[in-house]
Amino acid sequence: MRTSATGRTRQAGFTLVELLIVLAIIGMMSAVVMLAIPDPRGSLVQEAERFAARAKAAQEKAVMDARATSVRVTGVGYGFDARDRSGWRAMSEDQRWTEGTAVALGGEGAARIVFDSTGSAEPAQLVLSREDEQVMVDIRYDGSIHVRT
Fold this sequence. Notes:
Number of strands: 11
Mean pLDDT: 85
Number of helices: 2
Low-confidence stretches: none
CATH topology of the largest domain: minor pseudopilin epsh fold
Largest sheet: 5 strands, antiparallel
């Protein structure tokens, strides 16, 4: 035990006020860290742009191979098919939407978007949504693909 200049003895330790201040500082710092951590799923815009880039690659493949290519879109993911004499054949493994992403299909023939050998496409609109965010992927007659927020 220490004795102060006034003659009172002091116990070693922290006061309640000091402990509450330290807890408040730790709480504020942890809140800042939690807000700074990015979403592990990535942003919805990035997912839409990734889909658009893959669809554009399918369109270019259709032109290079002079053969129809399609993008098959479902609520759980999407895949790419090439047309041959026996019908549609899968070109690669299907891609899945990230967890929490919902897809609304609009336009005619939106479940299968076909790019012909000239690069033209059946127009379609896909609306990707996650929580309160929405991004639209618009595929036009001329085969152009646009991502809009």
